[in-house]
Amino acid sequence: MVKGIRFLKGHGTENDFVILPDPDGLLELSAAQVALLCDRRAGLGADGVLRVVRAEAHPEAKPHAATAGWFMDYRNADGSIAEMCGNGVRVFARYLVQAGLAEPGDLAVATRAGIRRVRVPAEGDVTVDMGRALLPGPETGIEVAVGERHWPAHNVNMGNPHAVAFVEDLADAGDLYTAPEVTPAAVYPEGVNVEFVVDRGPRHVAMRVHERGSGETRSCGTGTCAVMVATARRDGVDPAVTGEPATYTVDVPGGRLVITERPDGGIEMTGPAVILAEGELDADWLARV
Ligand SMILES: N[C@@H](CCC[C@H](N)C(=O)O)C(=O)O
């Protein structure tokens, strides 16, 4: 008889997650257990894990409990902790609504990067207020390298760190089986997500990403926001100056996200969030790690 741990599987533009409902925060997961869950052969397979915990029941989220009822405990596929996951927060919010834990409409989710406000219609795309992008600099001197090739990169922080490089062709990034080298390494003491970007048309780009802790993924929500801001500034577009919102379409291997920067600097990301399966894990199997 399987002693079960309930799980669901979901994705946002094919950035895929194991969702673990754990309202009372009782499920302590080691990095090795998260890595096993995310293993595509020995486990369920995913780019990351979303543990769904009541904010009240998690020490990092308790201060936010009056505003946000639920905490997204996000882990990368290697078990490392990240501050924020843009595709993850859409899927997390879709799960809350689908499970009857939140009403369709506007809701607040606590993350390690702070509270994120999410608009979840009963059906269709989900919109997240991703907060402001920080451009911590240096403005020049950061480089991303793959083999012999290297490109200047832009440092954009969306709650988590990104290095954005404009390239001629997305194939220039190579197979991305290993992490691109980013220098100077001291700019990113906690590691970095790396985006490679090409133009597709007016206010329309495409990207590939190598994620810290997960490798190449089919999409990265925070990455698309970082790319939007880096591209807008390259294009001389700054909503804080013009007073007009700016919208960019960002294509990723797993689909398309639409990113709008408002004159107040807030960034909104809109895209799909899909829950596709539900089941029970063998708790003994997980405990053996
Ligand atoms: N896929 C995510 C980002 C997940 C975290 C990232 N790998 C990190 O370590 O910062 C997204 O959709 O934003």
TrEMBL record:
<dbReference type="Pfam" id="PF01678">
    <property type="entry name" value="DAP_epimerase"/>
</dbReference>
<dbReference type="GO" id="GO:0005829">
    <property type="term" value="C:cytosol"/>
</dbReference>
<protein>
    <recommendedName>
        <fullName>Diaminopimelate epimerase</fullName>
        <ecNumber>5.1.1.7</ecNumber>
    </recommendedName>
</protein>
<keyword id="KW-0457">Lysine biosynthesis</keyword>
<dbReference type="GO" id="GO:0008837">
    <property type="term" value="F:diaminopimelate epimerase activity"/>
</dbReference>
<keyword id="KW-0963">Cytoplasm</keyword>
<feature type="binding site">
    <location>
        <begin position="86"/>
        <end position="87"/>
    </location>
    <ligand>
        <name>substrate</name>
    </ligand>
</feature>
<feature type="site" description="Could be important to modulate the pK values of the two catalytic cysteine residues">
    <location>
        <position position="162"/>
    </location>
</feature>
<feature type="active site">
    <location>
        <position position="85"/>
    </location>
</feature>
<feature type="active site" description="Proton donor">
    <location>
        <position position="85"/>
    </location>
</feature>
<feature type="binding site">
    <location>
        <position position="193"/>
    </location>
    <ligand>
        <name>substrate</name>
    </ligand>
</feature>
<feature type="binding site">
    <location>
        <begin position="211"/>
        <end position="212"/>
    </location>
    <ligand>
        <name>substrate</name>
    </ligand>
</feature>
<comment type="pathway">
    <text>Amino-acid biosynthesis; L-lysine biosynthesis via DAP pathway; DL-2,6-diaminopimelate from LL-2,6-diaminopimelate: step 1/1.</text>
</comment>
<dbReference type="InterPro" id="IPR001653">
    <property type="entry name" value="DAP_epimerase_DapF"/>
</dbReference>
<feature type="binding site">
    <location>
        <begin position="221"/>
        <end position="222"/>
    </location>
    <ligand>
        <name>substrate</name>
    </ligand>
</feature>
<dbReference type="GO" id="GO:0009089">
    <property type="term" value="P:lysine biosynthetic process via diaminopimelate"/>
</dbReference>
<feature type="binding site">
    <location>
        <position position="76"/>
    </location>
    <ligand>
        <name>substrate</name>
    </ligand>
</feature>
<comment type="subunit">
    <text>Homodimer.</text>
</comment>
<feature type="binding site">
    <location>
        <position position="160"/>
    </location>
    <ligand>
        <name>substrate</name>
    </ligand>
</feature>
<feature type="site" description="Could be important to modulate the pK values of the two catalytic cysteine residues">
    <location>
        <position position="211"/>
    </location>
</feature>
<keyword id="KW-0413">Isomerase</keyword>
<comment type="function">
    <text>Catalyzes the stereoinversion of LL-2,6-diaminopimelate (L,L-DAP) to meso-diaminopimelate (meso-DAP), a precursor of L-lysine and an essential component of the bacterial peptidoglycan.</text>
</comment>
<feature type="active site" description="Proton acceptor">
    <location>
        <position position="220"/>
    </location>
</feature>
<comment type="similarity">
    <text>Belongs to the diaminopimelate epimerase family.</text>
</comment>
<keyword id="KW-0028">Amino-acid biosynthesis</keyword>
<feature type="binding site">
    <location>
        <position position="15"/>
    </location>
    <ligand>
        <name>substrate</name>
    </ligand>
</feature>
<dbReference type="InterPro" id="IPR018510">
    <property type="entry name" value="DAP_epimerase_AS"/>
</dbReference>
